[in-house]
Hints:
Layout: H1 3-31, E1 34-44, E2 53-58, E3 61-64, H2 68-71, E4 75-81, E5 84-90, E6 99-101, E7 108-111, E8 119-126, H3 132-141, E9 144-150, E10 156-163
Amino acid sequence: MTGRSWLLLAALALPVAWLGAAAFVQERALGQSREWRIPIEGYDPRDPLRGQYVRFSYGWALAGSPDLCLDKGCRLCLSDTDGRVTATARSSSAACPFPVDLAASSIEVSRGFADEADIRFTSRIFVSEATAPQIEAQLREGPMVVIAALTPDGRLVNRRIEPAQ
Length: 165
């Protein structure tokens, strides 16, 4: 091979190596994460224009000052007491063993319709076309939980939803 061929080969291999390294870093972070079983509510089963997904609100207990999350942003600090997940809204993640970064987690914050004080934290999870009808039926039958991984950098990654036990 000529020098130009090696240069071309290196130029083509660099993006593949970069993607591989990025995938490795993401998988490593998920491997070091703690799993959480968080109740969900307010399901929107699927939107055919945006793919197969379930949109939901987290059903955790709220503490702290959730209004901070509407205005200038906040960090949530998760805790689990006897299987009950509590999200404490704070202005920073200081002294929090399990902080959630809302922006990195793609969690939307909004005020509820029924009660002015009701703050909703919504997210979504993609489901395959094959499992979507089964999940939609389960959502109608009873309470569900999302199994989510909380990475060390504060990303809450929704992995799957299943019936609450």
